[in-house]
């Protein structure tokens, strides 16, 4: 791995897209599927239980929001900061909306950040803290990458 390449900041985020499979996960999925199918053929009724492992590899995995130095990745969407033309943060609703020069829009919602807290006030506080941290990073990166898009807080637009 190249040491000069900056790492992505990764946050758990319940987006609507399917979990993307990494190279290692794809390899494990294919190998376990072949092995499970072989076991299913040899030990028919009991071998079908082996199919659970490739299914877990395919569907199990965290949904994440990855923030890089020039772009963010959420599910199947990639947003380049330099292409953002409009940015709107609604703290009351808990939504950060990004609109690109191509007309595509992307929104980050406070309620989609998971938390392990049980009490309602702590759940709300944890989600708000994660949302504020993520939005601050994104707003800063958009400011640096593009010539002051409309709606960026803290700038004269």
Summarize the structure in short.
With 157 residues, the protein is α+β, with helices and mostly antiparallel strands. Helix content is 37%, strand content 22%.
Task: Please explain how this structure is put together.
This protein has 157 residues and is an alpha+beta fold. Among the domains are: 16-59; 81-145, no CATH class. It contains four helices and seven strands, in the order E-H-H-H-E-E-E-E-E-E-H. The chain has helices spanning 23-42, 44-47, 52-59, 120-145; strands spanning 9-12, 64-67, 71-74, 77-80, 84-90, 95-100, 105-109. Helix 1 (23-42) packs antiparallel against helix 3 (52-59). The mean pLDDT is 82.
Please give a handful of descriptors for the protein shown.
single chain; 157 residues; alpha+beta; four-stranded antiparallel β-sheet; three-stranded antiparallel β-sheet; 4 helices; elongated
